[in-house]
Structures are given as C-alpha cells and as structure tokens.
Amino acid sequence: MSPPERIRAAGLRRTPARIAVFGRLLANGRPYTHAELLADPELAGLDHVTLYRTLAALVDAELIHRVFGIDGVWRYGVQPAGGPGCPGNHVHFLCRSCGGMRCLYDSPMPRVPLPESTEVEGRHFLVYGRCAACVRAGEATA
Amino acid sequence: MSPPERIRAAGLRRTPARIAVFGRLLANGRPYTHAELLADPELAGLDHVTLYRTLAALVDAELIHRVFGIDGVWRYGVQPAGGPGCPGNHVHFLCRSCGGMRCLYDSPMPRVPLPESTEVEGRHFLVYGRCAACVRAGEATA
DNA sequence: CTTTACATGCAGGTGACTTTCAGATAGCCG
DNA sequence: CGGCTATCTGAAAGTCACCTGCATGTAAAG
C-alpha cells in the first residue's frame, strides 16, 4: 500500500503536507525532529505549525510514533512493521553528539512491577551516549 | 552527615540556597520540578535562575539526580542511598494526572544490547500513566 | 579581617510548542 | 463535472522551560 493509500486507510485526508511528511519519515530510516523535517529540502516551504499538526495527526492515526529526547525535543519515526499501537514498544538510542536517534527494534520494552492499582499508559526507554559514527569521528580528530 | 555537611563534603560551598533546596528534596520523598520547588513556601523568594543553577550544581556533585518527564520538564530527586553515580540507575513513574513522579528504586535499569562501538552515557526509563491515588480519585468522582 | 573565587539576582533572550482565526481544499453528493 | 461542508493550512502572536551576561554579594581560606 502506497503512503497516500495508507494515510487514507488510517482515516485521514491525503493532503500534500501529510503525504510529503509521511513519505520523508518512511525514507529516513530513523526518527526525525520537527526541526530536522522543516530543514528537509523536500519539505521546503511547509509551515512549522502545519508540520506540528501533521505530525500529531499521523501519531493519532498510529502511522508514526514519537519519542522524547533528553534534550526536550520530540522525534518522529515510522511504526515498526506490524507493531502494536501501544506507545513505545521498543527502546531508542539518542546520540548526544550528532543528535540522531535510532530505533532499537530488537529491544522490546521491559516490563516493570508497579504499585497496586497503578494504570500504565506507556513507557519511554531512552539510552543515550555517542553513536558508532561519532565515536569513530572523534577518534579520527583526537 | 547533615545536609550542609554533605554539601561541603561534595566539594560545594554551603550556601543558604543549596542547603534549603537540598533539604527540601531530602524531605520530599519524590522528585520535584523546578516549578514545584519555586512554589514551595520554604523556598519563597528564591530567584528562579539561582534555583536552576543550584540544581545543576547538586546534580554535578551527584547529591541529586534528575529525570526527564514526557511533559518536557526535568524532575530532581535525591540519590538513592549508596546509589552509583551513573545517571539513571532506576526506573521512574510519572502520573499524567497529577504530574507527580516516583522513583522505582526496586526496578534497576535493564541492560540493552547496542551496535558495535556505541558509547553509552546513561539511560532514561520512564513509565507513565495514572498513579494509584489519581485512579482512586477518578473512580470516586466518576 | 582581608581577599578572592565563586554564588546570587536581575534583565533579557532562545527555542520548542500552542492557540486563534481567516482563507483554502479534500472528499462527498448530486 | 460542479457545488457543499468538514477539515486542513498558514500566519501572527502567545506560553513556558530554560539559558546568558553582568554587576553585586558572600563563603571560606589565609
């Protein structure tokens, strides 16, 4: 199913903004911030408020998921194939050097015992440090 | 060792602001936000920038730790007794109804396999939902 | 008590995100 | 194909957490 078809199947209007943003996220391979998407040449001219709302609509429709970085900025990435709708079903890694985030699809979210009658809505598990590329770049210049 | 002594032992000057803030965090029993601390009657009159810097100094000295909420706000809490300096050695719970955060000292941070030569600086594991008190309050009014 | 490195308070600024509202448009129906 | 309506878009302006620069104040060492 093509990106526009998936948008329509999720109950959303297939507007140019949504098709373009969803297409970029599909092509990226890793979660992107609002600012990274705005700077993307293929999304040039897109209003920043429209981008916020587009991302929110895609998250609501469960076409993408979002993860919080410890820098206070949300990242948006495509859902893993066949992944559950539950927010945060896998761990994420954030490089504090380049700011890039990676989905660790192979690391499912661990379960945690909680006090009686607590209601769990979701989990955020973020590992941060320096990615392999930045480590190598740092060694090269050091 | 009293709070002022612990501040001095950590290599910090024992100023009124640091003694008061560290004392409040010790008494609170759960992590507090910058805003919650500013609103605390015992910290009345404290400048908000000074509070930011005081918290940063206490974090650097490893007297307290800080955790990011999915609402984009840092919470500051005392270190668990004898806890390691490594940032984030236990899981946290955030109530999205009352905004309160709890340290789950009994849930150590799970280990996650990462790609070759990645450097890990720390981990943030946040479970969010509604705490037992808010669940009961909601049922009472519903 | 004097010195000085460090802490404080204030003014002002940054950046992510939201709200409001007028104008545009996707998709439905005939 | 053409009109209607709910919904989306874009621009201006606002909110909130947090940071920087600089002059003043103070803890602690000698």
Name of the top-level CATH class of chain A:
Mainly Alpha
Distance between the termini of chain A: 47 Å
User: Which chain pair has the greatest contact?
Assistant: A-B, 33 and 33 residues
User: What oligomeric state do the depicted chains represent?
Assistant: homodimer
Overall morphology of chain A: globular
Walk across the major sheet of chain A and give the strand order. Answer: 1-3-2
Q: What is the fold named in CATH at topology level of chain A?
A: Arc Repressor Mutant, subunit A
Radius of gyration of chain A: 17 Å
Mean pLDDT of chain A: 91
* Helix/strand structural class of chain A: alpha+beta
Uncertain residue ranges of chain A: none
**Count of helical stretches of chain A:** 5
Describe the structure.
The structure is a homodimer of 142-residue chains. Chain A is α+β, with helices and mostly antiparallel strands. A three-stranded antiparallel sheet of chain A has the order 1-3-2. A three-stranded mixed sheet of chain A has the order 5-4-6. Chain A has one domain (3-141): Winged helix-like DNA-binding domain superfamily/Winged helix DNA-binding domain (Arc Repressor Mutant, subunit A, Orthogonal Bundle), CATH 1.10.10.10. Chain A has five helices and six strands. Chain A has helices spanning 3-9, 16-28, 34-39, 48-60, 132-141; strands at residues 32-33, 64-68, 74-78, 90-95, 101-108, 119-130. In chain A, helix 2 (16-28) packs across helix 4. The structure holds a DNA duplex (30 and 30 nucleotides).
